[in-house]
Amino acid sequence: MHKNYIKKLCILTKTILQKSIDNGAKQAYNKDIETKRAQPRKEVFTMTNLTMLKTMTDRYNALAFTHNYIFGFTDRGVVYAVITDSSVLPYALTLDHASSKNGGGYSVRFSPNKAQKEMLKTAGELIVVCSEDQFNEMVKTSKYNKGEIFEMLMTEYFGQTWTKDNVPFTEAGDIEADGIAYQVKFQKATFCTESSLRNLSK
Question: What value, to the nearest 5°, has the Cα angle with vertex 12 and ends 7 and 16?
């Protein structure tokens, strides 16, 4: 009699405990679902995005004065430059969102990830410019931003003196060397926005 009572009590206790565990798991699952629903959804890079990137890149390329480029980027403590052409644009550029200040919609940026940097290293003439530490120190002690400092370094690389200007990409390159005009872009540079392309196409 005593043994049967103990056995029934154990079964009852196990049942109650299992229900408690199940309810706890269910509550935790529901809480996790609610948390995920409350979080903003990450944008999926669909074919629509790829089409938009290609469309904007093609329009930019059609308007550009030159189709030769010098891209600058950092990798593992080193600042690199690669001299290449517009054939790399669809693979080196990224579709992003333009701020409301810049008209909203999409923007095209040169913001290479690790794979894009490795691709660029084999896409043309690769130049080791300087260490990233030295580059950052130059920016820190200068009134110019990283893009302007990089352009200055590349101008000096070609034996010229750099002066800051604001000539549109539709009218000239940033550097001309040996009769070839180049656009110079350092990482995080914005190529264009939907708004700027629309205004230039009018």
Answer: 150
- CA gap 172, 169 in Å, rounded: 6
Three-class DSSP category at 12: helix
Query: Against a cut of 0.85, is the pTM above it?
Result: no
What's the CA gap between 94 and 116, in Å, rounded? Answer: 10
Nearest to 87 by CA among 123, 34, 139: 123
Rg of the chain in Å (alpha carbons): 28
Task: Compute the distance between CA of residue 156 and CA of residue 78 in angstroms, rounded to an integer.
Answer: 18
**How is residue 98 annotated by DSSP?**
P
pLDDT tens digits, one per residue of 136-192? 999 999 999 999 999 999 999 999 999 998 899 999 999 999 999 999 999 999 999
DSSP 76: T
C-alpha–C-alpha distance, residues 55 and 192, integer Å: 12
